[in-house]
Protein: Helix-turn-helix domain-containing protein
Amino acid sequence: MITESASGGLAGALREWRTRRRVSQLELAVRAGTTQRHVSFIESGRSVPGRSMIIRLAESLEVPIRERNELLLAAGFAPAYPQTDLDDPQLAAVRTALDRVLHGHLPYPAVIVDRHGDLVSANAGFQVIIRGVDPHLLTPPVSVPRVLLHPQGLAPRILNLDEWAWHIIERIHAESTRNPSDRLQLLAAELVDMAPPRPRQLPPHHLGFAVPLHLRMSEPENRELRLITTLTHFGTATDVTIAELRLEAFLPADETTSTALTELVTW
Structure:
């Protein structure tokens, strides 16, 4: 008996996620503790799994929890994961933890962004490096990638803009491919129009896989900084808002940068 259309609904969404993750039906079945036959029946619309099976399949495919809720809704179940406003008193402990992380990273820049790269919070180190950015780019919602690459943002002061711009764009493309988002795709297209031609190859001074940010500070400091970045997220979060937060921390790539930031940042 056909219980839903194989081209859409839960069946189509599950098949799309499995294809995106490049996982076979057999591998998914093993991960989720079921049979390939059952996975095949679900994807063909011949069977609608229970709530716990949908969650197990989604976890096995590393589906973001926002989209796990959508899979549950497609099957007629209530969402399993809450989405709490970050200002809600229930998340006071999370906000405190984030503030401590940002402050603890000083004097080096760090920001908290949401799934679209919009600024949630920043420390004094980040405020230092964005001095001179046009005020319209700092009007909420503030897109951190746009601030970095816009001609009225940091772009004129990035000495390796051709490398850094494409590093940012490729990261957004990768995230949009892994976790589809129309907003991210539009942002990536906007940044491509701003970016200089893509370099043919990375220069030999890169630190492993990292593309350093070589930034000239605005007047009156007129110093040059070399920074590398790290990304951190709450990998075990069960609230949509928390799960989608990202910490982007900038670290000095040399002692000169470390000393400069220590002198420039007011704690």
About this structure: Strands lie at 110-113, 119-122, 213-216, 224-233, 246-252. The chain has twelve helices and five strands.
